[in-house]
Amino acid sequence: MLSLSLAMRPCRHPFLLAYLLGSLVYMAAPATLPAETETREEVQEQVAAALQSHDWGTAYFVALKEMKEHPEEKFWADVVVMARLRVAVDDAPRIRQSPSQLSKEEQTKLQSLSKATGAWVSSSPEQRKTTVVALLSQVKSFATDHPDVPLIWIMQAQVCVVAQRGLEGRIAARNLEALRAWEAESASVLSLLGQLQVLGWMPATKATTEQRNSLDALEQQVQVLGLQKEGAPDKLTTLLSQIKEFCRNNENLPNGWLLQYHLAAKLGRNLDLTVARDRLIKMRTKFPGTPSP
Q: What's the rounded Cα separation, in Å, for the pair 92 and 78?
């Protein structure tokens, strides 16, 4: 998991933290989650790691989902309450770390993981099924030690999009959002973020309930129309107009522009794609010592 820049601050609730970590040991034997997500045991391990590193954002995100699915387990409600308090206190920008800031050994490992990810994505579906767990384990391990390097979360997101690993994909997207990865001028990065947005994995942290509902509806339409083989182009063009209207009315929400970027690229609408890209780049917020993704 990731440890935010403020994760090194002392916990103001040490006894509650100890209780929450200890509670994981006594939870019921893990059951199997849907194929596209992790097992219950893996979910518990990720939350434990997040709590240990004071990554309140990830702990809150995962626990909220688990609380809805397993309301009988009080543990998740306790995590949600504590993490919500900590997120409210620890509200500061994440500082992106460039791979060049890593040690030579770490840079070599990152390059190796990048090659492995590329090879995995281009391998056959049968090979991907048997190797996805091992690859994700290595990627997540590196992310635990280097949570502010956008590239490692990009790798995790790439694997999760292909393998449809929902929970891990959402965690990667949450970190890319926190690191403001949309400020990158790379077409491949923006394309990936657009895919994450269509899947509904990108968090809309600054959005109102009404905006989220509109985004959800637009994302679902893109997904449905994207699967249709006949008549989709005209419908997608109409949908693009609706997305553009949403962006005009909510111009400071990156999620809408990511959706426009994705659909404009799919339809070959270069002008609409460029507008979305430029708008995302103009949202750039410079913090002292912040390198580009």
A: 24
Q: Are 225 and 236 in contact (CB under 8 A)?
A: yes
What does the pLDDT look like over 110-163, one tens digit per residue?
999 999 999 999 999 888 989 998 999 999 889 878 888 999 999 999 999 999
Q: Which helix (H) or strand (E) holds 83?
A: helix 74-89
Q: How many CB atoms lie within 10 A of CB 6?
A: 15
Q: Under a CB-based contact definition with an 8 Å cutoff, are residues 191 and 265 in contact?
A: yes
- Average pLDDT in the 245-252 region? 93
DSSP string, 240-261: HHHHHHHHHHTTT-HHHHHHHH
Question: In this predicted model, what pLDDT tens digit does every residue of 179-203 receive, in sequence order?
Answer: 888 887 788 999 999 999 999 898 8
d(CA 169, CA 161): 7
Q: Which pLDDT value is given to residue 260?
A: 94
Q: How far apart are CA 34 and CA 69, in angstroms?
A: 12
The owner of tokens 């893990």 is: 30
**Rounded distance between C-alpha atoms, residue 78 and residue 93, angstroms:** 26
Cα separation, 243 vs 252, in Å, equals: 14
> Bigger pLDDT: 48 or 148?
148
Structure tokens at 51: 């709590």
- Report CA dihedral (120, 122, 126, 128) to the nearest 10 degrees: 20
What DSSP string runs through 109-136?
HHHHHHHHHHHHHTS-HHHHHHHHHHHH
- 0.70 cut: is pTM over it? no
